Automatic annotation (TrEMBL):
Signal sequence range: none
Localisation: Golgi apparatus, trans-Golgi network membrane
Record family assignment: Belongs to the syntaxin family.
One GO cellular component, as annotated: organelle membrane
Keyword Transmembrane: yes
The name this protein goes by in its record: t-SNARE coiled-coil homology domain-containing protein
Repressor found in the keyword field: no
Top-level taxonomic group: Eukaryota
Any Gene Ontology biological process: intracellular protein transport
InterPro entries: SNARE, Syntaxin-6/10/61_N, Syntaxin/epimorphin_CS, T_SNARE_dom
Alphabetic keyword roster: Golgi apparatus, Membrane, Protein transport, Transmembrane, Transmembrane helix, Transport
Amino acid sequence: MSKAQDPFYIVKEEIQDSIDKLQSSFHQWERVPGGTGEQVHLTKELLANCESIAWKVDELDKAISVAARDPSWYGINEVELENRRRWTSNARLQVADVKRTVGAGKENDNSASAIRRELMRLPNSQQPDISDHYSAKSNDDFVASESDRQMLLLKQQDEELDELSTSVKRIGGVGLNIHEELLAQEKILDELGTEMDSTKNRLDFVQKKMAMVMKKAGAKGQIMIIIFLLVLFIILFILVFFT
């Protein structure tokens, strides 16, 4: 089976595309200032993508384990199995590194946000009442902005779930195609075995008939039969190659 038809390489290419997009988003996350709404949005997006890719890699690992039980049946060898295991292990490490870095950054941002909230609770009698007005307005703007961000995040999560559902259906379709192909090959092998048994029986029958004819014909008859078959072969050879 060629790589273009191998389900492993089809799913591998899909996962690699997801990892490339994850790395691109991660580099963007690194350039965004900490504590901003954009960083919060990118953090949640990265963590969700990490979970999705990790799940796909786990499913691919399960398929490799199934193939490892009988590699010859799937047309692969131990070297190919080891290469596939090495690739999934490397993919899992890349995702884990991104998830660990983003998770650590998220915890630090949460700590800084908690400190800022504590400082905002401290009384400040020296500020005039107008500062309270601006503070309340700022809080309203922040709540509205956070609400919009949450709506955007929910929409993005819905899109990611749709994409994940599509990927699951695609993997299921690939598995179904493999199952159907195996059943078709098994049927062909059964038919070939039956045909070989039938041909063997016919050859045995012809050999027995020829032995009986040769035995009854005697030495002179055998010579005549050989001469007749030789002449027949020469005639057929001429008809096939010179006409």
